[in-house]
Amino acid sequence: MDSVDFRSDTVTWPTPKMREAMAKAQVGDDVYGEDPTVKALEQLAADKLGKAAGLFVASGTQGNLIAALTHTNRGDEIIMGCDAHTFCWEAGGAAVLGGVTPLPLPTDSLGRMNLAQIEASIRGDDPHWPHSRLITVENSSGGNNGAAIPANYFAAIRQLSDRHQLRVHLDGARLFNAATALSVEAKEIAQHVDSASICLSKGLCAPVGSVLVGDRSFIHQARRYRKLLGGGMRQAGVLAAAGLIALETMSQRLGEDHLKAQRLAQGIATVSGLVIDPSVVQTNMVFFTLADTVPLTAQELVNKVWQTAEIKLGTYGDRKLRAVTHYWIQPDHVDALVNTLKAVLK
Ligand SMILES: *Cc1c(COP(=O)(O)O)cnc(C)c1O
What we know:
By secondary structure, the protein is α/β, with parallel strands linked by helices. The protein is 42% helix and 17% strand. The two termini are 30 Å apart. Pyridoxal-5'-phosphate is lined by residues 59-61, 64, 85, 138, 142, 171, 173, 199, 210.
């Protein structure tokens, strides 16, 4: 990459190996079901998550939307965390296109909804009420410092949803980060849900795409919704070729990103004017805030860091900032950021 960019792991460029595989990829018309590279990617994603089938989609947002449309009918309700990506950052797609309302519930510091509160929110059969149909969960939890939620929470969600005949979808945009942090296979988490979507284009470095997985009949219906949304892609094997490398090899190296995030959090803790608790950093996200005494806004600090060292950072509101580590961030970039923050805030 040609700049040091901590704003997100979505900024990652494809690796040289990916570009090579993309150039050589076997392709076909995937809407006809004839692209061998896409098929291989869908099967690999399904295998990794312990599901029968997969569907290559344009983005994480599209994967979550297709899952919502496939699991629900108009007038249904989806229970989700109030800080979940599906609630906050996906343009209300399920409501706009599916006639489905979200029911946002509070979450704890790891992004978990309270089980008793979920149970209390499930609705009976009354003409005043929407039908409770789906629970959407997220791991890692982007709205909670990228926290990794252990598999036992999903087991409990499964039990609860079985008691009430609800479906469960996992927004696993960064599921491999969570699995890495927890030292488990991704399927140990995904075994408890009906469907899951994973992003190939974040820490896994593919240029484009996500995969939605589930059982065969779910994916069969999901394929129809993908078409309906304009997401049926033709010679998508050029993209899937990078996705295969993302799943095969890039999913195995995320621990390095987590170490860099830990190094960054420890460094930021030594910068006067910044507030952080490094112990909450479990994956590749580092959130920190400006101390009340600092006469700058988060955006002003971002601008100064850019002017001083050409390093990019993200803001979350007036006083909060985010730095995300990824493949293209080197340990000395981490040190350069900490030193720049020290210099700018001196
Ligand atoms: C990035 C992200 C998505 C959606 O991904 P896009 O590919 O940007 O649409 C969904 N959920 C979570 C938790 C994410 O971080």
